[in-house]
Design brief:
The chain is globular, with a radius of gyration of 21 Å. It is built from twelve helices and nine strands. The strands form four sheets. A three-stranded antiparallel β-sheet has the order 1-9-6. A two-stranded antiparallel ribbon has the order 2-5. The protein is 52% helix and 11% strand. With 320 residues, it is mainly alpha-helical. 32% of the residues are buried. A hairpin with a 2-residue loop joins strand 3 (207-209) and strand 4. It has helices at residues 4-24, 30-47, 53-59, 61-67, 76-101, 112-122, 128-141, 144-159, 162-168, 176-192, 224-227, 271-288, and strands at residues 27-29, 199-202, 207-209, 212-214, 219-222, 289-293, 300-302, 306-308, 313-318. It has a single domain, classed as Cytochrome p450, CATH 1.10.630. Helix 4 (61-67) packs across helix 5 (76-101), helix 5 (76-101) crosses helix 7 (128-141) and helix 8 packs across helix 10 (176-192). The protein binds protoporphyrin IX containing FE. Protoporphyrin IX containing FE (HEM) binds next to helix 7, helix 8 and helix 12.
């Protein structure tokens, strides 16, 4: 609730930009657009400032660093490129921390960064390095995943165009029925493409898992991507069907049958934030614009996130 206005402002800015593209008919990259929206949103939440062009240019490097994970590229040259990107990202983080220390809050008032700095005044163990780490973690975790999800959502709507109508027909603009249906689109997208598709866990003690002995110290990988496509849990699993998450839809009763935000003590800190920002922007974009893909990525890249394996060029038009 505290960040609702900032989310709404970023969503309006995205919709205004889309109106411009729809007027000119310019080709744009949908993935880049979604990254811009999600980065603007998290930047406003963290600092209180709307994202400016210079900061965006620097933070675009996050995508390059994330693409290089989990195996950082071999070779000195590639390593040096990532190190250079990280240094530039750090420079943005340290400048934002310094501005928050000087109480140069943005037009929306202080952000999460101020909460971290206030905590640091009481807790000496909150070092400058720790605050930088928290800030960069929130920046990275807080936008790539949401942007990728929104990009997959439009690719899935391109496959199942009826789903857009289904959501819009659920209720008039601003109604709880429409909001729930739009959220169902997001939930069903996260079922097919949970952007954090694989989650590491470390067994502290010996255990038994589904009849298998797990030694203490074993590293385990939990794979929501596979669980979400298990036909024993999800009938006709490959089909994009948001009605599964609508009223009367059938979903597995077991909590572990659907875990795009993980489970347990380390579950996603930004679950509600991510859902809220996705629904807020889609409530503006879905009724107002149609999206025509000029090319579709053939598949997915499975690295630290699961993302489309190519560019997503589109042309927008005002919906009639
Ligand atoms: C659709 C968007 C998102 C998805 C799919 C997603 C998914 C996840 C997943 C699967 C985890 C690991 C959970 C586990 O290991 O059990 C995680 C962790 C985390 N996420 Fe998200 N996330 C999203 C958006 C966000 C946003 C917007 C923020 C910040 C505002 C955020 C902040 C974090 C943080 C800080 C962690 C680490 C939590 C910890 O280790 O205690 N995420 N996320």
């Amino acid at each position: 609730r505290r960040y609702e206005q900032r989310i709404a402002a970023a969503a309006r800015r995205a919709a205004d930009r889309w109106a411009g593209y729809a007027r000119t008919g310019d080709q744009i990259d949908l993935g880049a657009e979604m990254r811009h929206f999600a980065l603007d949103t998290i930047w406003r939440a963290l600092t209180g400032h709307p994202l400016d062009q210079a900061t965006e240019r620097e933070l675009d490097r996050i995508a390059t660093v994330v693409a290089a994970l989990p195996q950082l590229p071999d070779g000195e040259q590639a390593g040096a490129a990532v190190a250079e990107d990280l240094a530039r990202i750090d420079a943005v983080a340290h400048a934002a921390i310094a501005a928050a220390r000087r109480h140069e809050d943005g037009p929306d008032g202080p952000g999460v960064l101020r909460v971290l700095l206030d905590a640091a005044e009481l807790h000496p163990e909150y070092t400058e390095r720790l605050i930088r780490d928290e800030l960069v973690t929130l920046l990275v975790a807080g936008h790539e995943t949401t942007a990728t999800t929104l990009t997959w959502l439009y690719l899935l709507l391109d496959r199942e165009p009826g789903a857009r109508r289904w959501a819009l027909d659920a209720g008039p603009e601003g109604s709880p029925e429409r909001r729930e249906a739009v959220q169902a689109l997001v939930s069903e997208t996260l079922r097919l493409y949970p952007s954090a598709w694989i989650l590491p866990r470390h067994a502290l003690t010996e255990d038994t898992l589904a009849g298998h002995r797990v030694e203490a110290g074993t590293d385990l990988l939990v794979c929501p991507y596979l669980t979400h496509r298990d036909p024993a849990l999800w009938p006709d699993p490959e089909r994009f069907d948001p009605a599964r998450f609508g009223p009367g839809g059938s979903r597995p009763a077991h909590l572990g049958g659907y875990l795009p935000f993980g489970l347990g003590a380390r579950a996603c800190l930004g679950t509600q934030f991510a859902l809220r920002e996705s629904v807020a922007v889609l409530e503006l974009l879905l009724p107002a614009f149609t999206v025509r893909f000029l090319d579709r990525p053939a598949g997915a890249v499975y690295s630290i996130t699961v993302r489309p394996d190519g560019p997503t060029p589109v042309v927008l038009a005002a919906a009639v």
